[in-house]
């Protein structure tokens, strides 16, 4: 049985604190524990211990060449971990930490487990904006390595139930703080060069980064999934339901026509749409991810709906597309990966 600590997000509440202390002690004993962050649930371990970090890779079935993000609860922890803090990184931290932003730094040698950084001389660090995550890290008094708490390849978990589905029998426990807010992972930004580069779009948008540091570029390999991405994790298939997903670069009528075609062949077809249009489709399963007029709701609901298709018996899924603006860039990046970059342009 997996241990499930239910906590109030008001961590100063006396009811929650014993659970937080319990989870922190387990991390200090070099075991792994899942906990909520503002983006998705993370699977935490002591980032200084090979033994602990190894347990993350084993539990997730994660390839060992994919480095982990290190989570901290206060800026003072940074000095121990990195060689220098570039000016752009300093500005971004001031603006967006705690928050869904991971910054890549030149790492200090000999502090973190080599397994965290997968042989790179850089390290990704973030300070999550979630009271439970911050309290656990603070209480553990350690830098905490934490990838998303899913089995490798699956959509990241946005509820404790998702974590249990994926990792029951593989980890000691999950701290359950309810649904996460943002719903997609942090933005990964490399500030070690002259212009900051987005290696993975996420909760902090390109526009928000540019407000603070001026020009920001996007790792070109993210488009079409071609070339070797600078963020090793971006090369793996990910987020995909069991049934193949096709993105439809067309109208709702086009989506309906594709569904009708498949159903006439005797297949079961699903549609991924938004509240505005969910009632208009005739298909075997229709899921709304959120509201098109507020892409934050789409980010919030995306992984839950991608997972939910696996509890249905659809053979194929057609998904509407979104503008690549604001958090839409992260939504489309995840949808393209879920679809293996298959796009139908009717
Ligand atoms: O929102 C998030 O970032 C969540 C929560 C739990 O904090 N974590 C998360 O971790 O998404 P993970 O391991 O699923 O994704 C980490 C990504 C991968 O694409 C990895 O390759 C990249 O960050 N990454 C980590 N360290 C890196 C480094 N030194 N250089 C380039 N990319 C790095
Ligand atoms: Mg992940």
TrEMBL record:
SUPFAM superfamilies: YrdC/RibB. It is found in: Cytoplasm. L-threonine binds at residues 39, 71, 126, 146, 186. One of its GO terms (cellular component) is cytoplasm. The keyword S-adenosyl-L-methionine does not apply. This is Threonylcarbamoyl-AMP synthase. One of its GO terms (molecular function) is ATP binding. Required for the formation of a threonylcarbamoyl group on adenosine at position 37 (t(6)A37) in tRNAs that read codons beginning with adenine. Its main location: cytoplasm. Belongs to the SUA5 family. Keywords: ATP-binding, Cytoplasm, Nucleotide-binding, Nucleotidyltransferase, Transferase, tRNA processing. Residues 17-204 form the YrdC-like domain. Coiled coil: none annotated. One of its GO terms (biological process) is regulation of translational fidelity. ATP binds at residues 62, 66, 148, 156, 200, 239. InterPro entries: DHBP_synth_RibB-like_a/b_dom (IPR017945), Sua5-like_dom (IPR006070), Sua5/YwlC_C (IPR038385), Sua5_C (IPR005145), T(6)A37_SUA5 (IPR010923), TC-AMP_synthase_SUA5 (IPR050156). It is an enzyme of class 2 (transferase). The lineage of its organism: Bacteria, Bacillati, Bacillota, Bacilli, Bacillales. It comes from [Bacillus] enclensis. Its EC number is 2.7.7.87.
